[in-house]
Amino acid sequence: MTKVVLVISKMDIGGAEKVFYDLAERLSLDTGYRVTVVCLYAQGRLGDSLAAKGVEIHENILKDKFDAAGIFRLADMLRDKAPDILYIAGQAVTQAVCLIAGIFVKIPLKVIGFHSHNLVRRSWIKSLTDKLSISSAGYITCVSESQKKHLVSDKRAQSEKIKVIYNGVDTKIFKPCAKKADNSIVIGAVGSMRMEKGFDILIKAIPWVLNKCPNAFFMMIGEGKEKNNLEKLASNLKVDSSVRFLGQREDISEIIPAFDIACSSSRIENFPLSILEYMACAKPVVATKIGGVPEMVKDGFNGVAVDAESPEALAKAIVCLINDKELRKTMGINARKTVEENFTVEKMVQNYKDFFRDIQK
């Protein structure tokens, strides 16, 4: 039996957190693994769900990021669990705490899993943490070839230590459903409302879209510190009557089927689950060609790739799809097929299992 300890800061809603959730849940169902999840802070909603499903999870190892005693609490826990593999989320505090705790406990294999979309833009202290933890780790996983290139070129990680494991989604939950018949065209976007997610770019594209297609309607799902500013922007541009902000939702898999077109206007991105969720629901995607996005969205096949920071390019792509129903349908079918062949949660978890097996040889 392989004992795996997964360490992450907390498990609220987010892409990296959802990957940890799926990995922990599905590994725990395999009799070949004993899984323990450690959250440095409060475990969050996804952590609560894991606990309810019987996965062993520990929380509040740290009182705050300056809690030095928490390092020894983690070391004691690792000593007690004696993992064969310590899988560490690529988060500065998590990396630092595990790096220091590892001095006091012998762990056969340490793996850092990078999911972040802004590795290149980290502060100097976070960059130093990356450098030290990367050098001490036996292996590294990341979620796109684009990110691997950054790790090698900017973080000086050894290419042979890095394994790319793409994210995956549950195609039984995210699946095509018939859209209610009406005359509106719904363009939807899901994500955390932070500046790097570029919701403002999408809102700035709306006047141009409405000028060409007055029946277009926009749905934006998510919360974040930019939400109020985004609502004000929509009002200032006089498009607020054509936009609905739905906030944080637990029923995303039921909302996406209402979209005709899905949109990702991010400034910075890695390999977002939201795009895979759109594609699994057979939605054509208009997405900025940044990070690992081109590894899933193939321009002209299952979506349209546009330049970042360009409301006009975004608007033109959206209007093109609005005006071509058959193209939307074909791209949606191709999107679903792309996910089924490459990006299912089952394939993702199997790739982690294969990786864990190979590094123990």
Describe the structure.
The protein has 361 residues and is α/β, with parallel strands linked by helices. The chain folds into 2 domains: 2-168 and 344-359, Rossmann fold (3-Layer(aba) Sandwich), CATH 3.40.50.2000; 185-342, Glycogen Phosphorylase B (Rossmann fold, 3-Layer(aba) Sandwich), CATH 3.40.50.2000. It is 43% helix and 18% strand. The chain is built from 13 helices and 13 strands. The chain has helices at 15-28, 44-52, 68-81, 92-104, 124-136, 145-154, 199-212, 227-236, 252-255, 273-280, 311-322, 325-342, 345-359, and strands at 2-8, 33-39, 56-58, 85-89, 109-114, 139-142, 162-164, 185-190, 216-221, 243-247, 261-264, 285-288, 303-306. The strands form 2 sheets. A 7-stranded parallel β-sheet has the order 3-2-1-4-5-6-7, with helices on both faces. Helix 6 links the parallel strand 6 and strand 7 (162-164). Helix 1 packs across helix 13 (345-359), helix 3 (68-81) packs across helix 4 and helix 7 (199-212) crosses helix 11. It is elongated. The two termini are 14 Å apart. The relative contact order is 0.12. The model has no long low-confidence stretch (mean pLDDT 94).
